[in-house]
Amino acid sequence: MIKSKSLFAFLFLFCFVSGVIGGIAGISIVASSPTLQKSVGISTDGGTLQSIGQNNISNITVKEDSAVISSVKKIMPSVVSVIYTKDVEVIDPFGFGYPFGSGGSTQQQQGGGTGFIITADGLVATNKHVIDVEGAKYTVITQDGKKYDAQVMAKDTANDFAILKIEAKNLPVVEFGDSDELEIGQRVIAIGNALGEFQNSVTVGVLSGTERSLVASDAYGRNVETLEGLLQTDAAINEGNSGGPLLNIKGQVVGINTATAAKGQSEGIGFAIPITTLKSAIDSIKKTGKIIRPYIGIRYVAVDQKIAAIKGIDTTKGVIVMGDDSSGLPAVVPGSPAEKAGIKQGDVILKINNDELGEGKSLSRFLNQYSPGNEVTLTIIRDSKEISVKVTLGEFSS
């Protein structure tokens, strides 16, 4: 009786183990054979595995952010590194020259940033501060490792923007999006030569804000300039990313990475120039080889509570036409469209056509929507009265 029970237990264990092994082997065979999968009611379609029964269907889906990957693959061939080299003289700290008696020595200084190709025949967009090094030579390195000597074609004095030219043909070009259609919280992608060392680094974040204003400078506090209408993002923008593209999820360029908040003060705050702000400059370069901007010919400051109190103005909006007393520069440039239209020092400009000036909505930004020769109407407060003045815009090129 005992032997019979032992035999029964052995047979039960043997059958159980055999069943498990057979089941695993069967699953492996079915998983490797699409034909068998269909015959037993299992189908794979587009990365989704479906187990089909009479009463229910369960889906097991592996999700991947393929849109980001596709966007990066689309634009990566058009992103370039921009390198500058400059010979600088090395002076002995004691003032004798180095080496002694030789009158001095030189060493090569290097730096750079990022850019992207906007025409197949070699126009490259980047930041002005990337190529604003006096006496430097510039080199563009494409995604495939080719190096090209680059010439500076134009610098946009109204924005931190510049165009380089390399001698090449059939280059892959970027596609532009519409930065005016961006919404806060929308995913964006930054690509750049991070820290000047890691070529075409990709960071992903969201659009944190629009219409930001920023006083920017280099690492030494020099070359200070005010930038307006910027896009803010939490996608990491590091040194060397300057001039690289900011993309939407379609792989279209919606901005140019230009600055980041000072290290130690905050994290996750980067800024980009909206591409719509620069489209007129890009179109001008393509047509004429230079950047042509509309021109009024006034000097002004934004009206705030302090300015309003000092000048006795009843508004805190718009800009007041005023010169620079320290340098003797006049408020209205002689012979300019402003002088011809009768604009005077002390005038407060509230609107250009129907666009009201205010925070993040500067006069220069609205002007960039027009072309030289266009007539615009300025709404002005003069002697506590609101008047309208028509101005025919002049031409300024760089």
Main sheet overview: 6 strands, antiparallel, barrel
User: How large is the count of helical segments?
Assistant: 7
Question: What Rg is obtained from the alpha carbons, in whole angstroms?
Answer: 31 Å
CATH topology of the largest domain: Thrombin, subunit H
- Which CATH top level class of the largest domain fits? Mainly Beta
Query: For this structure, what is the CATH homologous superfamily of the largest domain?
Result: Trypsin-like serine proteases
Unreliable parts = 36-64, 218-223
Strand content: 35-45%
Describe this structure in words.
There is one protein chain. The protein folds into five domains: 32 residues; 26 residues, no CATH class; 95 residues, Beta Barrel (Thrombin, subunit H), CATH 2.40.10; 108 residues, Beta Barrel (Thrombin, subunit H); 106 residues, Pdz3 Domain (Roll). A hairpin with an 8-residue loop joins strand 11 and strand 12. 19% of the residues lie in helices and 38% in strands. The strands form five sheets. It has a six-stranded antiparallel β-barrel. The chain is globular. The chain contains seven helices and 23 strands. The protein is of the alpha+beta class and 398 residues long.
